[in-house]
Specification:
The complex is a heterodimer of chains A (560) and B (361). Chain A is an all-alpha fold and 560 residues long. Chain A has two domains: 260 residues, MetI-like (MetI-like fold), CATH 1.10.3720; 217 residues, MetI-like (MetI-like fold, Orthogonal Bundle). Chain A is built from 26 helices and no strands. In chain B, helix 2 packs across helix 3, helix 2 runs parallel beside helix 4 and helix 3 packs across helix 4. The radius of gyration of chain B is 25 Å and the shape is elongated. In chain B, strands 6-7-8-3-9-10 form a six-stranded mixed beta sheet, with helices on both faces. In chain B, strands 13-12-11-14-20 form a five-stranded antiparallel beta sheet. A five-stranded antiparallel beta sheet of chain B has the order 15-19-16-17-18, with no helix packed on it. Chain B has 361 residues and is α+β, with helices and mostly antiparallel strands. The longest helix of chain B is centred in the middle third of the chain and has 18 residues. Chain B folds into two domains: 224 residues, Rossmann fold (3-Layer(aba) Sandwich), CATH 3.40.50.300; 123 residues, OB fold (Dihydrolipoamide Acetyltransferase, E2P), CATH 2.40.50.100. The two termini of chain B are 42 Å apart. Chain B contains eight helices and 20 strands. The chains are: A mainly alpha (560), B alpha+beta (361). The complex binds adenosine-5'-triphosphate and magnesium ion. The site of magnesium ion (MG) has 2 residues of chain B, from helix 1.
Chain lengths: 560, 361
Amino acid sequence: MPTLKVARAEAGPRPALKPAVRLDPFVLIYGVAAAYIGAFLILPVGRILVETALALTGSDRPLAEGFTEYLARITLNSVLVASLAAVGSVAIGIPVAFFVTKVPVPGQGLFRVMLALPLVTPPFISGFATILLLGRTGVFTQLLGQVGVPEINIYGAPGLILTHILHFTPLAFLTVAAGLQVVPRAIEEAAVSLGAGIGRAVFRVVLPYVWPHVLMAAALVFLASFGDVGAPLLLAGNFRVLPLETYTAFNSFQVDPRIALILASWSILLAFLVLLVVRQLMARTGIAHTFTTQPFVYRDRTLRWVGFGFCSMVTLILLLPYVVIIISSFGTVWTTGILPAGFTLRNYQFILNNLQDIKNSLILSAIATPVCVWLALSLGKLFRDYGAKVTWLDYVVLLPFVIPGVVIGIGLVKTYPGFQPFGIPALLPIAYSIRRLPYAVRVVIAGYSRLDRALEEASAALGASGWRTFWRVTWPQLLPAAVAASVVAFIRIITELGSTLIILPPGWRTATVAVFYYVAEGFIGRASAIAVVLVVVVVLASALANVDYSRIARRLRAKR
Amino acid sequence: MTAVILEGLSKRFGSTVAVNDLNLTVADGEFFTLLGPSGCGKTTTLRLIAGFETPTAGLIRFGDRVVNELPPQRRNVGMVLQNYAVFPTMTVFENVAYGLEIRGIRGKELSRRVLSVLELVGLSGLENRRPEQLSGGQLQRVALARALVIEPEILLLDEPLSNLDVQLRVSIRKEIRRIQQALRITTVYVTHDQEEALALSDRIAVLNAGRLEQVATPFELYRAPATKFVARFIGRTTVLAGEVCDAGPDDLVAIRVDGGLTLRAARLRPVAPGERVWVSIRPEALNPVADPAAANNVVSGEVRYLEFLGPVVRGELKAEGVAEPLLFELGRPGPDWPALRGRVLHFEVDPALVSYGLERP
Ligand SMILES: Nc1ncnc2c1ncn2[C@@H]1O[C@H](COP(=O)(O)OP(=O)(O)OP(=O)(O)O)[C@@H](O)[C@H]1O
Ligand SMILES: [Mg+2]
């Protein structure tokens, strides 16, 4: 047998190892990423705070009378809407999550897919649908009117809360379902074998276990609702909420310019507060996500069908808005009757002839997405390699998630007024890449956490530099996560509204903004059509995200 | 090749002291095992040698070079881990070739060396398989081949067999020993399985809570454990407390164990009469005798507990003058072995299989 001894003799002197780079070769990349975040997140947010402080201390002119009461009122309004939206969404989300994960309701897979739709579309689409359904000339308003129910005014708090519940229930559902998915089988088996009925098992064992997830779901819905400016813009009427007031104060020339600053700073301070809570919850819900087990299922016929009925109803209600928008997009005028007066393709024709909005959206997303994913990959690696030493970075990365888009937009515009290199309104893609960073980072970190660190160490022990280890060992395994992060980032970016409204440079109207213009000008059909196009783009993209890339990659490699 | 010398090596993580003032010399070409219970610092020691952890204190030397400052990439060690860490995106061949590519070896030379190592570990013909198409034992061999192909000065193995089933574990450990002998490569092997350690090693270091308990050959470790911990950890034994009553001029030491009985043990280390000691009595030290009057160093007592293990029955003896039950074994049990329960038996104790040491204050 030819042993290694022989090989060694023939091999001659051992080739010298290349000298290793002592400095982490990624330092430069981390540096650029940090500089980007510093320049476009920390600096603008800091600037708002500082400017506010200067404006308040530097001027003797008193603020408009009753400003404090006004501030308190809109804050309370926002908190009220966000809290009720959170409670409502979680109240509906928990049973749906339970039925879909713990009781094999018939068609559970289909429910999961259909309930994901509101997740990828922006809230103002739901707001728009609420108007079509329940507005002054809405379908339901008319149906109810025919049986004598007086018109309900949905402009204001009720419409807003309803819209947000409709829109954010899937977010609550998915968050709770993720928790239910990882409840260890054994504890439920133990509960049931000790003779606990289903109800007792659920309330005494399961719910306490997923309590952090429930809180997280509530916190996520609260944040999303609190920071949303799109639905209020369409629906709030005279009911004033914080992000919308910030937006109008910033855009109005009559209002004291200090007001917008104060409102923005106030949003930032509130965001910091929520951030502390969310960070705690993240730590408690994050660990569980790393392993998946086959969840315990409750086999019970009645429960199966009750669950099926409930899920069907919820799905139907949550998807109704999209049905209405699709019908409306093919309609002429739709002010009387349960269907439009006539059907036409004119709305789509019009959009085909005026593609600029959609083009703008695609161009800006195409610029912002790679930047966002690159940032996420760099930060993900930084977390992985120096996790314990950079916990503060956690907060920084979560910041754009809790600060309303309007506020980030204001910060950027104030810090970099008129920044348009090569005619590109760079602030928009910059705002997008920063705002949607938390989503991309989440996916990337999940990808990194599936990588075994021992592989990287094995590579280093074999003499590979950090750079080579990354490209040969880490990156090939990270690729699926990078693709998924790109899709998620793209979906979030193309539906962004808050910072777009603030920054919006002339000639760069995006598809999201176009919906508002058409609604405001009364072109409901056109607004619907462009909303449908947006939804289709987003659904296609998320279908791409659900493809199993690691399998394809494996197959391609096998072929090679 | 290279000796590995650890001088006063310590590593703490926050308040945990994982490795505590370790002094060891692994000789050139030696198969050296770090053995100890879970959490005693074996893995940490290995990672210190590999360069993945930096010592809190102490020196690590390869031969006469201090390597403390050397990054893992430049230590030229081969590492094999419990979970294999085979690169999932590369074939068997690519996995093994990886380390050679880094060293600038290409083409014919590269494939010749890869194929020769694959043959050495018994994986010929599987070059183009992907890791997901291999069994656990084959993955382990890939990891071994990948570590060996770079002709490391030192081979480090961290519980490489613990994810395999018992039969595979025994056959692969023979392979590892054979390859190590063929290459005469300095090897540090980590395990918590004492049988594996005894079977494989030239010498074994027993660790306990980050500290070194004893370094010795497997035989010495078994026959002459330096501490109570080692006596308990290696093999089966009964550990009693007692007092030296005669340190005698001859090669036997007489110890009165708690309970009153006096036993003789072969002289291992100097003790003085009156000193408190622990005494370890291996079950095979007890040889059954029919006539206690005709034998020396006898224990007698009632069989309290008995279990059938195939080649032997093992039991506990409630011996007169001994506070604790004594473990004993009887070879080639017959079908009537249960009848021994409750019987009074007499045993002659072989002093060579009794060890002792001073109780730590
Ligand atoms: N990175 C780390 N951070 C903090 N503590 C650590 C770290 N690595 C190891 N420890 C601690 O150091 C001690 C020794 O750990 P080590 O992994 O070396 O044990 P081990 O002997 O290999 O155990 P096992 O047989 O379970 O693998 C343990 O208490 C462990 O919790
Ligand atoms: Mg270990």
